[in-house]
Amino acid sequence: MHSDQNKEAIDDGEDIEIADDINQFPTGVGRKYSPVVAHDVNDSAVVEMTSIHPGSSSSFPKHELKKVKVGVQPNMASEEREESAANHNINGPQRESKLELFGFDSLVNILGLKSMTGDQIQAPSSPRDGEDVTITFEQPKPTADKSGTWMGVFMPCLQNILGIIYYIRFSWIVGMAGIGESLLLVVFCGSCTFLTTVSLSAIASNGAMKGGGPYYLIGRALGPEVGVSIGLCFFLGNAIAGAMYVLGAVETFLNAVPSAGIFRETITRVNGTDIAEPITSPSLHDLQIYGIVVSILLCFVVFGGVKMINRVAPAFLVPVLFSLLCIFVGIFSARHDRPAVGITGLNLESFKNNWGSSYQMTNNAGIPDPNGKIYWDFNALVGLFFPAVTGIMAGSNRSASLKDTQRSIPVGTLAATLTTTGLYVVSVLLFGAVSTRDKLLTDRLLSATVAWPLPAIVYVGIILSTLGAALQSLTGAPRLLAAIANDDILPVLNYFKVADGHEPHVATLFTAFICIGCVVIGNLDLVSPTSTMFYLVCYAGVNLSSFLLDLLDAPSWRPRWKFHHWGLSLVGALLCIVIMFLISWAFTIVSLALASLIYYYVSIKGKAGDWGDGFKSAYFQLALRSLRSLGANQVHPKNWYPIPLVFCRPWGKLPENVPCHPKLADFANCMKKKGRGMSIFVSIIDGDYHERAEDAKAACEQLSTYIEYKQCEGVAEIVVAPNMSEGFRGIVQTMGLGNLKPNIIVMRYPEIWRRENLTDIPATFVGIINDCIVANKAVVIVKGLDEWPNEYQRQYGTIDLYWIVRDGGLMLLLSQLLLTKDSFEGCKIQVFCIAEEDSDAEGLKADVKKFLYDLRMQAEVIVISMKSWEAQGEQQESVEAFSAAQQRVASYLEEMKEQARRDGTPFLADGKPVFVEEQQVEKFLYTTLKLNLMIQKYSRMAAVVLVSLPPPPFNHPASFYMEYMDLLVENVPRLLIVRGYHKDVVTLFT
């Protein structure tokens, strides 16, 4: 019946309310937390709290129900719906009997699959997105035409790689480095891009990929901060590369058609070679004017969208491929001094002569000149040639426009990389064998000189090749910037956001502005290395991403591309760094500094997010390995760190939406040295777990937010239990893992239990202490929490330790940790020891001093003998407190005796039989009175007092123990009651 009702509701298009599983921040998050103020002038510890009170209905906001409208396809006829309903009812009982266990029918299962696969719901662009969504079974909206492997990846990569470097500088590189080192240069640079392509293929085939290309991959692998910093650098690299290609095209055009120059050309004379021919260079102003015009025209093409670019791309690429064919035909058909002087044709003698290198000085035009200012070596040639192999990201930049990113990016990019690398290797051999070295060094357009039938074909190929590469750069850069903006990490980039299926016009204008600004510079040799550095930063990021993901091998790491290994990715990353320094250490430092500044800016101003990046996985793996290496053995005292479990359940009230006493959080920070260590903040909600599970989630999120607000390094945990005692007993047994279990229980002393007549507090408080003793946990109880100083309040005086019982050195260590905080750094430590006889005083003092010296602790030792203790006077306030405690104990004993006589049973307290000796009770009361008097006498001006915690006496009522404790803490404003455990936390040895 439940299934049929659901179906009827769905068929009628009604709204179905489902519980939202997304954790929302509770109300009050983000408001300023006011300091704890006393609501009762007589009790500074009485503060109001409504956020964790178990009886308050508004303590934790319930998760709001979100309406998800489920409708049928609008084009389904009513007859089809009726037939579908009839088919559903044929085998209804059998299907319902199987699905009733899960509480939903098959249609809702389909709905869940649809939402999970993202067929009907678009995945949030950012992990912070969690807005209300409407899910319908309508036909998806038609999307823009997607590109395949050939048009979407291979051609853009080929156009970017086959650029101006090949046409106008490659033959000169062969002449300068020789055939042997030129082959080494091609293999060296090609290996870097090949390994990067392998890493790119592995990451891109590990799941669905949205827009942003390498930014999307790096951000999801290394986190949003690294992703945005490298992504913005890669955006700048693409924008600057567009200017480089435009300048190359314009320079080639003006060299081919000198008469097109508006301003006078400058002439660079050739010296030091047998072939003395003047080389003309176009004017800077001509480069600027033509470059700006070409950039604007290309921007108009980019504004037409991917569809127009795909139509225009063949018009640029086909002439380029034809020009390459003409170059190879011309090389094979060349003869001695034909088509120009210095062309030998394919000649073994030329091959031998050009095998070795000929590094030398050149002028600014690259022509050999003994008086030149530029010396070329292999490192310099790496910087000159490497832009010729960049461009492998051109396909991934358009990932949002691809039909199948997991197949197209690996296949298309690798095909383009291998094709161009093979072309460069063959070209080295052919250029080295077809001409003399002087011709290689002086003819910057040797590829056009040997082309068949006319050099003009190569001029056209150069211009179209560079324009095609510029077009691909100006297409990928805006989409990259829009993808970064859409992730909503940096609010300053919100102007570049773009809806799905729309063109990034604002980002395109911004890219064009950067491109034109670089064109105005007019210096190709200055623009080229800048762009190359940003490319290499991105390539290194891709390799490091693949290295990290492959090394961690998380369950989600299942790339379809199987030919990868973390070692190859690591070598690729190292090659990128080496090439950066080979090109220019100055440019390397500038680019890395820029990436670091962007990273720092994003970490400060950016919105936090969790993309499941590799660093999170690395932290997880490191934590697991560390935990396994720690094992379950006892931690050595030298490696002991306090892991406090801060019990937030207050003995009192707190302000609204404050889940933990502010000073308790401050004290938890005082237990860490320089922030090292972890705190676990725990609170308990009374009730049934099934009924209050949502309240626990809200409370945990609220507590986590408050911990972050108080800048405490720790985690929040909320436990639902029938009562506080049961909840704490479960916590103390199960909290933590291995040696990372909490070792110190920190809680507030219940100062208000008698004033508020809270008779249930003594039994709970004593039960918690006994649970800690049984579980072998140390205990620190803070009395006078409202007076505890915050980080801005400086304390002066002493930190007094009344070291009564052996506690493994915990009290001494806590005093040292307090001194590391700014609030107590001006204090000195005093250690008070109790001696039974006067004769033991000096020996005890010497022993304690030696012990503290060996522990590297500076403290003054004061020994108090029992005789001096007995001889001291008693203050009137303490005597009155002692008398009042005696009267309450006597009254309670009379009540127990009367109850036992009426019921004919032994003494019962807290539901357990007790055996109380009145003389022993008097002795306990007197002991605590004397210790309290001692503290008031010697530590009245102390900043804080530490005293050993006495264990609850066996078979004494809990209220009696509270009487002892109240008498101990009477009139002491700030007191830490400490109990150690059976482990040493300090050691004498190095």
Q: How would you characterize the overall build of this protein?
A:
The chain is of the alpha/beta class. It folds into 3 domains: 154-271 and 278-605, Up-down Bundle (Amino acid/polyamine transporter I); 638-783, Rossmann fold (3-Layer(aba) Sandwich); 801-989, no CATH class. It contains 32 helices and 18 strands. The two termini are 74 Å apart. Mean pLDDT is 76; it is low at 1-143. Keywords: Glycoprotein, Ion transport, Membrane, Potassium, Potassium transport, Symport, Transmembrane, Transmembrane helix, Transport. It is a multi-pass membrane protein. It is found in: Membrane. The chain crosses the membrane at residues 150-170, 182-205, 226-247, 287-306, 313-334, 378-397, 409-431, 451-471, 506-527, 533-552, 573-602.
